[in-house]
Amino acid sequence: MNICLFMIETYWHGVRGGMQTYQKLLSEELIRRGHRLTVISTRHPEDKEYEIQSGLELYYLRDTTFGSKRKGWKAACLKKYIELDEINSFDIIYSISTIIPKKLFAVAAEKKTPIILSSHGTGTMMLLSEIKQIFSQRRGRKNLFKIILLFIYYYLFMELSLKKYDAIIAVSDEVAKSTLKWYFVERRKVYTVHNGVETNLFRPDQEQREHTRKALAILNKEKVLLFFSVVTKQKGLHLLIKALPTILKNNKCVKLMIIGEGEYLDEARLMVEQSGLEDHAFFTGHIPREMASHYINASDIFIMPTLRQEGLPFSLIEAMACQKPVIVSRIGGISSVIDDGINGLLIQPGDVSKLAEKVIFLLDNKDFSDKLAKNGRDKVVQKFSLEHMVEGTIKVFEMTKKLME
Fold first, then answer.
1. Hey, is 78 helix, strand or coil?
2. Angstrom distance (rounded) from CA 174 to CA 330
3. Helix (H/G/I), strand (E/B), else coil: 336
């Protein structure tokens, strides 16, 4: 198949979030399996207009703004698509998020080219999550009106276009349910294909563990709690820092390793300092993906106390693939992979005391912790591997293409 992929921020822009990781893994596997893939994206910060990476053709549109659907995106991406399609007709148009301009739907319909969307979450999921957090934590109510207005704008002018797509690939059961419930999409068009991880790369590795702990000056007796994410307040790092003093009362040999960068990083550093936790928390900054498994293996418990509706976080399934016990918020697509008490532990978003309690429990119950970790890897291997993700995606492409013929 000849596939045209639209995405406003790519891995090759230098962006390393979950959607960009998804795009990179999927793109490389599609090419490896003999498909042709072209990416159309926004302006590159270094003013590149075209490059080839591992057989993937990337076009960066100069007349657009990096990472923005506005300011020239609609006209520029439509023009580039028509130009490339005339040279070598595309079989599939694939979009990461709702960024396809309306005119492209008409162009594609004329040639019976299916347009397929990869959905990693919906605005409705985010809105309900925000409202729940505002009322449960009893703060932020002054922002509620602004949040609702923003949601209405995106719902009316962007997300209602969901019903125009020929197929929607949801990365979790929760994303699929939200799409069907709120966006008037026909059930036959919605497929669930979970995010997948390279289980041969992300696996338990004692050598990686020992080497990385030595490099980080972590003592054998010390237990390492791992936070691995883009550092925004919605990811809940502040809750983990708040829980740390309670955890330390039970076990002094605990350290918190914080991996990632983001807008909340400076505030998090300040919070650690003001709490007197400098000896028990450290920041690594950004870690290249090829080194991620080394740092995960160096840890003892993976924790994601997120407050936002997640599609299906890559860092979660990567930690499970490395056979680490996980403690995560009961929210969004996380419940697609976590069976509470069987392959991980769930907490209510924002519950600091329960978070501390669960960490202490795992530290005090090694056999149970090991069992959770083993069950976690088993589930990822069985249901959340990269192979499952790629094969599921290709199947949707082929089925949708056949229905259009």
1. helix
2. 12
3. helix
State yes or no: pLDDT of 378 exceeds 70: yes
As a whole number of angstroms, the distance between CA 23 and CA 175 comes to 18
231 dihedral zone (left: phi>0; alpha: psi -120 to 50; beta): beta
Residue 244: both structure tokens together: 């740390």
Sheet of 167-170: strand order equals: 50-53, 56-61, 36-42, 2-6, 92-96, 115-119, 167-170, 190-192
What proportion of the chain, given as a percentage, has pLDDT over 70?
A: 90
Q: Tell me the one-letter amino acid at 327.
A: I
Residues 6+ apart with CB under 8 A from 252: none
DSSP letter (8 states) at residue 184: -
CA distance linking residue 375 with residue 353, whole number of Å: 26
Contact 192, 389 (CB under 8 A): no
* Closest by Cα among 294, 296, 173 to 229: 296
- Two structure tokens written together for 216: 């980080």
How many of the other CB atoms lie within 10 Å of CB of 119? Answer: 26
Residues 80-131 have pLDDT tens digits of 999 999 999 999 999 998 899 999 999 999 999 999 999 887 666 566 666 6
- Other Cβ atoms closer than 10 A to 16: 16
Q: For residue 220, what are its two tokens?
A: 């054998």
Identify the pLDDT of residue 70: 82
Helix (H/G/I), strand (E/B), else coil: 156: helix
Domain with CATH 3.40.50.2000 in the chain: 2-193+386-404, 206-383
Q: How far apart are CA 369 and CA 225, in angstroms?
A: 13
Tokens 């795009």 sit at which residue? 23
Please, are residues 357 and 167 in contact by the beta-carbon 8 Å criterion?
Answer: no
Amino acid at 79: K
State how far the Cα of 11 lies from the Cα of 13, in Å rounded to an integer: 5
- The token duo for 175 is 């994303």
Alpha-carbon torsion angle 94, 100, 105, 111, nearest 10: -40
Say whether domain 2-193+386-404 belongs to CATH 3.40.50.2000. Answer: yes
Distance separating alpha carbons of residues 347 and 345, to the nearest angstrom: 7
Domain 206-383 has CATH 1.10.10.10: no
pLDDT at 305 over 70: yes
Mean pLDDT, rounded, for 184-189? 92
